[in-house]
């Protein structure tokens, strides 16, 4: 079933695909092409680290015994009616019976719980335990006992930790330290019973695995089972003192039954772990769909108060997800519809979308929305249109969207039309919006769509627009099909189909950037490290030396400390020249009048030197000298920079430079490591991208040189790490094609 009760990601990728550790060629599961998932045990990949010592592969925790334990201990078990722990104990006993686990109640105040022997302490357990469920207000004292008993996993429901503020965060830190010493893995605290829900076992096909930090937010996805969509796991991560979203993401990406991962994320515990987990999912071609709250300042504050974790700058989170193929959606209805489609739909045979309806207005409306969202609606060829006009009146439009006028769907012609559209090699997706039930037509159309879907390897989608949703054509025919994707709104259908096409385009060309990440420091890094000044902002002259160390081109220039030296420097650099004051405290020289341009004579150079130094003395700004620079007059001004993100570490920004960076803020963010393809994709996201292609007679800019500069800056960010708090190259002038790019100004800050 691809139905729902509710009705991007493009990159330029190399054609080669890197095979992940343990990965095997694709094979077929449930009649659908599914990639093999690499093993779920610890140590599946060798230890491999980048230049900063950070891992380059995601460890895959062996969570089999968490989700399918052989033995379970319930610490604080109760059977006293009216007590909260009693209901939880009862639910856990039912769950243990379903998964075939032996359950052992533990409570020093009881000898029996629900007729089962109850043990006074963990030490009294009759056998080793895979999972301990802690129904105690303070789990910290129990952790040491669990470690001595060699328990593998524990779940802590208790609240009052990082979600409550500073004191709670300190308590959670103590809990995390105790868990780290113990050797067990902990889910929580501040989690719930979602992992122990009753999953339907009568459903087949690829499943959705669900990760949520707030349990209630996963309910819409979990309810998909009522429509025939299989769910395999639910991980309610809570405050993530130990086990986190990334752990479950890595694990689910290796499970052969998982067709898609759906996640509700309030805050990420560690950015690097998330990137590595998303990389593993991309390598294994497992789609990940996520709602990440915190797009606004208010949302970020609310998320932090709920989970006690850093939210991170949203544009950085967005960039990280996009780079590694995580499909970010805004609503829970989009999450369930998109995840359901991606879990079950076969790989597209083509990217073209055909819109077919019994109403010209409906088809036109849907087509406008689909095209605006980036879906491609190819015009059907003359031969195909002539074929369709065998069954559709000549006066109706059939070029795409296809309008049948209504009557043909009521007889044998309806199926002929569907088969003809699906036979077109340019069409990979057929979408039929049915705005309302009209049984003489809609019932027959729904059945024809289901029958046609069974006979094709292409995706067939239906939007059932009735607000009622109780009609047989919807409830039985469409939702009863495992091959038709049924939606309730135009928007959700378009979002899901776009994600479906984008995902397969992405993973088919995916090459992990971690495979090419630098493992050893380059000679450039050693030169650059000698230039760093801890706790200081470098002068422009020193910052440009840093750029030179990494092979980034700067203008011909000399640093001088006298008017006579300035004149000599100008003759060597070549007129016209630019003169700028250079000092470690200068960030905005233009505003202070400390930049002079278009100087064409020795007298102008002398006067400029005296004026610049006078202004610096008046403003009490220390200088290391005055720069006499080559004048670069022609090119596109860009900005390239490095900042440190609290979650992901160094990030690289590129965008329109000069004054435009402050006026338009047309910039995009990249999270290292990334390759040339992603650097080019970043440029394609800029609203002002056309400037690089040349406008109003201007020649095309040297795009290759710009990309190379971005990659060199990324290398600098990776190798210098925390030693470089900030780098700002503005402007970087990109010259006409073949002439390179030149950094006219630079600012660097050492922490």
Explain what this protein looks like in three dimensions:
The chain is built from 24 helices and 30 strands. The chain is an alpha/beta fold and 751 residues long. It folds into five domains: 125 residues, Rossmann fold, CATH 3.40.50; 146 residues, Rossmann fold (3-Layer(aba) Sandwich), CATH 3.40.50; 158 residues, Succinyl-CoA synthetase domains (Rossmann fold), CATH 3.40.50.261; 75 residues, Dna Ligase, domain 1; 115 residues, D-amino Acid Aminotransferase, Chain A, domain 1. Strands 20, 25, 26, 27, 28, 29 and 30 form a seven-stranded antiparallel beta sheet that branches. Strands 4-3-7-8-9 form a five-stranded parallel beta sheet, sandwiched between helices. A five-stranded parallel beta sheet has the order 11-10-12-13-14, sandwiched between helices. It is flat, with a radius of gyration of 31 Å. It comes from Streptomyces glebosus.
At the fourth level of CATH, the homologous superfamily of the largest domain is Succinyl-CoA synthetase domains
Which architecture of the largest domain would the CATH scheme give at its second level? 3-Layer(aba) Sandwich
Fraction of residues in β-strands: 15-25%
Gap from first CA to last CA: 55 Å
Domain ATP-grasp: 544-582
InterPro entries: ATP-grasp, ATP_grasp_subdomain_1, CoA-bd, Ligase_CoA_dom, NAD(P)-bd_dom_sf, Succ_CoA_lig_flav_dom, Succinyl-CoA_synth-like
Region (Disordered): 23-62
Pfam family, one: ATP-grasp_5
